[in-house]
Amino acid sequence: MHFSENIMSILSYTLLTANVEIPELSFSQKTFEKLGDAAFELVKTVIIVLLVWFIGSKVIKFVIKLVKNALARTNMDAGAAGFLTTFINVALKLVLAFMILGYIGVDTSSIIAIVGSAGLTAGLALQGALSNFAGGVLLLIQKPFVVGDFITACGHSGTVKKIDLFYTRMLTYDNNLVVIPNGTLMNTEITNTTYAAFKMIVYKVGVDYSSDVEKVKKALMDSAECDSRAVIDDEHPVNIFISSFDASAITMELRFFVKTDDYWPAKFAISEEVKKRFDKEGIQIPFDQIDVHMKN
Q: Are residues 113 and 170 in the same domain?
């Protein structure tokens, strides 16, 4: 230990007596200073970006919550409300992302141009799908029918089982599944049979010209009143009248209301009941006939 200490002392004395200067590491110091400044700026930028994203996300969540509460008060369809809130959420996050990219110096105009051209290309390639998508959005917003309604559209009649953003699925009375594109559905006539709470049954029957009209009316009235599904009150009266005079019969028309869910059972039952009443009262339902007169 004493030997090494002596050697170090001798070297130190020699350097001092010889006036030898130790050069400064100026280049390395400047390099490290620049790296330090760059690292500091990077850390600062990352912290600001994370802070802006965190605060922006909280604000977006608050806005989405307000939108959901507002849509809930409007009684909008759940599918339409969900789609609208998702769309607003994505749009706001895209705006936030572009703000952050602009802050860190990214040219957002070029990104917008690329996204726009890509969207145009995709739109041209997926015209049919976009048409169905737009139709689905309109169906969910305008609600010409909802799941469970019985509708007639595009030559098909059935109960709506599901409304997607691209297709509507309905089940026909004979249990066939019909899938209709929403774009086609929005450009055609739609008849919603179950839209109202009550539905009118219109029943026509022909009677012989020799029949007593008042007697026929009473038989038809009794047929309607004996059905427990018939809704008869001041707002939903029973109407019976002569509809037309045909070649072989007088056509009588019976109109009465039932609850929409009872429409088909009541409509099928009225024919059987009218036939029984007519047979009991001796009222004849004529068939087509031709009188031929011979001249000598």
A: no
